[in-house]
Amino acid sequence: MKKRQTVLYMAPAVILILAFFLGPLCYLGYVSFFEWNGLGPKAFVGFANFQYIFSDPVFRMAFKNTVIWLLSALFLHIPFGLLLALLLNRQPRGWKFLRVMYFIPNVISTTAVAFLWYFIYHVDVGLLNNILKSIGLGRLAHAWLNDPGTALVCNQVPFIFYVGLTMIIFLTQLSTVPKELKEAAMVDGATGIQIDIHVYLPMMKPAIITNIMLNLAFCLRTFEYPFLMTGGGPANSTTNLSLYIYREMVGSNRYGISMVAGLVTVLLGFGIMILVNMLQRERRSCHE
After folding, report:
1. Residue-range domains of the chain with CATH
2. What is the pLDDT of residue 50?
3. Which Gene3D superfamilies does this UniProt record tie to the protein (predicted)?
4. Contacting residues for 237 by C-beta, under 8 A, at least 6 apart
5. What residues of the chain score a pLDDT lower than 70?
6. CA geometry: angle at 66 spanning 70 and 19, to 5°?
7. pTM score, two decimals?
8. Secondary-structure percent of the chain, ordered helix, strand, coil, rounded to 5
């Protein structure tokens, strides 16, 4: 009876996974071996699509840029969110207002945020260049989105600094830390920074793992920033895997090529999740 109930409870989730994840994933792998424009008959080409993308310099650039996005999440976005959470956890004056202000950008559509930053960086009417000119630093004014050396960084700036959700997850974890631990550390003469490092940080590992998974998943599928701010340019310097897939499918009608790129993205995501789960298991084994 219990087994039957378990099967009944799990059935809807299993059906949804099969219908909307495993099924499309298998079809993606199937179409990867064909040349297809999305409408006509498919022509089997074997591994030709795989050979094409791995020899395509645009795909290699897109893969590299996607890895840079992932690294920016690990080493800039998440640490910045953690720092803000630790600062707000001390409850300075106006901390509730600051918490709301940092979270507001996460409520706004990513499309709207991308357009906002496009006009901030605009070479003629952009806020950034006008501020530089108004304070006598006009020589630093720059075509930020038209320079391959700065375009990718400019795409990533909104993501790096809009850490509202990441910060809230860290704050939620901090709220579960027993106050007695902090009080005991203070009695022992620990400073605020020492409390953050030796009391709070060891208790933050579940939130860190959660934020790693959420933010890496976002970076793998991010599309609005490179598409709306730079269109993948200049010279494909901001093209990532999501934009590459879109171009090949919608722009060039090469569904087989786009499916291979999608398969690479899925495998990259699987690899990341496996690494994160290994880290989580290692943490549990250390506690045991």
Report:
1. 43-287 (1.10.3720.10)
2. 94
3. MetI-like
4. 61, 65, 148, 151, 152, 230
5. 1, 282-288
6. 90
7. 0.91
8. 75, 0, 20
